Amino acid sequence: MNRRAKSIWVILLLALTGITVFDACDYKPRNQGQKLYEKECASCHMENGQGLGELIPPVANADYVVKHKEDLACIIRHGIAGPMTVNGIEYDGEMEGNTKLSDIEINNLIHYLLVDLNQQKEHFVISDIRAQLEDCQFHSDK
What we know:
two-stranded antiparallel sheet; single chain; mainly alpha; Cytochrome Bc1 Complex, Chain D, domain 2; 7 helices
């Protein structure tokens, strides 16, 4: 390989390394939370969290999310079934839980739900989420 070709490879490698480092430095919980929402939740709750009419409740600007924020970790991990009222509309369905998400992923997803979709200033830290998940272990028998 000649000197010019080696120089080009070195420059490309440095550029790719710089992009990777830049992305890692830009980490914010809502970034992963939004990506998780898009991958795991949007197919039912819709892209902007508006829900699907009277079939699937909204998670954006949703009074239920704000009133039950301490239950969100358990709901995400273990699911929920039965009647619930969201923004004055009664829903009676079932949402499967997602046991594949890590505690950190659940934390970041909840951060996105609360801060970005429901304009809440307060959010949880990972120790809060882990405590909530420990308290809901009885749901794992569903």
